[in-house]
Specification:
Blueprint lengths: L2 H5 L8 E2 L4 H4 L7 H5 L5 E4 L2 E4 L9 H5 L5 E2 L7 E2 L2 E3 L8 H9 L4 E4 L6 H16 L6 E4 L2 H11 L2 H4 L1 H6 L14 H4 L3 E8 L9 H5 L5 E3 L3 E5 L8 H5 L5 E9 L2 E5 L1 E4 L6 E4 L8 H5 L9
Parallel strand pairs: 6-7, 7-8
Antiparallel strand pairs: 1-4, 2-3, 5-6, 9-12, 10-11, 11-13, 14-15
Helix pairs in contact: 5-6
The structure holds iron/sulfur cluster (2 copies).
Length: 300
């Protein structure tokens, strides 16, 4: 068995958009991270759902990495690791999120070839190092590879698009394959939050539409309190897309994890008689009765 064969393991993973996609759960979803990242227009609408056009997909993995819910499964075929180091490749630029995750998963270095790493990589590594410092982690370092090694590597990996998907699959070590949920920052930095969930309690009617759609269980409602676990939020936009009152905003906010608690009251609706929860002291009707058309159910 060659050194190469020992080092590399073959993977057979098709890139697919799974039912975790917000668009599969909510027709009003505006999530477009994957669409924005795909440079090959390989993500297309099929009715209200998104699918991957396998004739156009190069398996670069950009969509998969960008998806906040790890809703795309497959393989970032052009990411090449050697002994725990990510090899520089000018044909793509890794994302900030990606570098933070690789670092947390044990990436030791970024190895450049004999030519210097390009400006795009330098910028994203600098940004990643800034965030890593905020996260109490050590920085990512870049090293040069020797000339002979680089040439053999270039010959070896060349251009994945021309050499075909099967080769790309076979050249990525299985140890760097992502598990389900593998592209969620919240999984790797449990003590921190990357986003703040800002709920406007003047507008929120506690209708709970967002609670039921949030795939990360950010919201927990108890007898008289609503807890918001900012550390779990992945900014999937499910809550902001569904909220009829526009009462939620998600803001980028990297810091130590903070859990917010909001008190509410229990009341009896003066219109329908049902018990309801409310943040507003002066409200006497439940959100259903408030939003009901006054003409609706009218006998006249
Ligand atoms: S980024 Fe993920 S959740 Fe958003 S539309 Fe694409 S597949 Fe769906
Ligand atoms: S709080 Fe909103 S944006 Fe954050 S994970 Fe839940 S639904 Fe998505």
């Amino acid at each position: 068995m060659s050194v190469l064969t020992k080092w590399l393991e073959s993977l057979h993973v098709e890139t697919i958009i799974t039912s975790k996609c917000t668009r599969a759960r909510n027709r009003k979803s505006t999530c477009s991270y994957c669409l924005e990242q795909c440079k090959h227009e390989a993500i297309v609408f099929k009715e209200h759902l998104l699918v991957i056009d396998t004739n156009k997909c190069t398996m670069c993995g950009a969509c998969m990495i960008a998806c906040p819910l790890s809703g795309i499964e497959g393989l970032a075929a052009n990411r090449v690791f050697e002994k725990g180091s990510l090899l520089f490749d000018h044909t793509y630029t890794p994302s900030l999120k990606e570098l933070l995750i690789y670092k947390k998963r044990g990436m030791k270095l970024i190895e450049a070839g004999q030519t210097l790493i390009n400006q795009e990589w330098e910028s994203v590594v600098a940004e990643a190092n800034e965030r890593l410092t905020m996260l109490g982690e050590t920085e990512i370092h870049i090293t040069m590879k020797s000339c002979s090694e680089k040439l053999s590597r270039r010959a070896l990996f060349g251009n994945f698009q021309t050499e075909g998907k099967q080769l790309a699959k076979s050249l990525t070590p299985a140890s760097w394959q992502m598990e389900p949920d593998g592209w969620k920052l919240s999984k790797y930095f449990p003590g921190y939050q990357f986003f703040s969930v800002e709920l406007n309690t003047n507008d929120c009617t506690l209708c709970q539409a967002c609670f039921s759609l949030c795939p990360e269980d950010v919201f927990t409602i108890n007898e008289t309190t609503l807890q918001i676990d900012n550390g779990k939020c992945v900014n999937c936009t499910s809550c902001t897309d569904i909220c009829p009152e526009n009462a939620i905003q998600i803001r980028e906010d990297l810091k130590r994890k903070n859990e917010r608690e909001e008190m509410f009251q229990k009341k009896q609706c003066e219109s329908c008689g049902q018990t309801f929860n409310t943040f507003q002291i002066g409200t006497e009707k439940c959100h259903v009765c408030i939003n009901r058309d006054s003409e609706w159910l009218s006998p006249y």
